[in-house]
Predict the 3D structure of the following.
Amino acid sequence: MPSYVYFRKKIIPLEQAKVGVMTHALHYGTGAFEGIRGNWNTAKKQIYLFRLKEHYERLLLGCKILRIELPYTADDLIKITVDVVRKCNFKEDIYVRPLAYKSEETTGVRLHNLEGDFLVYAFPWGKYIDVDKAKVAVSSWRFPKEIPRAKLTGLYITNALAKTEAIENGFDEAIMLNAEGYVAEGSGENIFLVMDGKLVTPGSFDGPLMGITRNTVITLAKNELGIETVERHIDRVELFKAEECFLTGTAAHLTPVSEIDRFKVGNGEIGPVTGKLQKLYSDVILGKKAAYKDWCTPVY
Ligand SMILES: Cc1ncc(COP(=O)(O)O)c(C=O)c1O
């Protein structure tokens, strides 16, 4: 099944979309991107795109930081995205990658006086962390201090270093500490601990991306299970005290963590709170829960 892309204001086959070697974003990391899931509901023969509005509001925040002026509102971007995905005609789980970037072919470190553009494409994508329970390691790479927290392409170098270090050392994912040594997040996910019946997760003051899945899980825990979430500093050593631990992200969904730095979390199995949240989350993203239908945009 061919993929399509919205590129230079037209929907064209993905393989035909090319950028020049001097493109600013390629050299200086001057892009803001998103990852959006389209979840295939077999019974309904439908793809539901999850929380498009929140993804595009975050993309536009990235554009503001990078001074990329797009001639589109969040609603325009949503419409373009639905059109691209419909054109692809996939009947499986997909991932959608929008990118706003400094498209001008010129050299020089700056953000001002540069043209920007927007593209979005979709492709079939199954599991991101391809295990039922992830083994994670605390990375030797720390978050830079005072980064503008949006999904900016140039910021992902530290995350990529951390991820590769973890994989090369035999783990599934990296947990990054911030400059002060507090737990921040995974290389592409937020982190939650279950402690004394509550969820505990780092707050924005510790630097993690304010994940849309993070927000979804906090909402579901509260509304559906009556479980509160505490946002606070998490010391590295608390990772070993947690009863349960899981990661959240658009790509990784809700991934249980069984081991941290080779120590088992709880008994190393998927804990009861994690299991319940995983089930709720998967029903919600497939459009099966009426109360959260507004988060799901049908494509067909
Ligand atoms: C570094 C990082 N943290 C957290 C997340 C989770 O964010 P979201 O749930 O919005 O996908 C992502 C993925 O987008 C990420 O790249």
About this structure: The first strand starts at residue 4 and ends at 7.
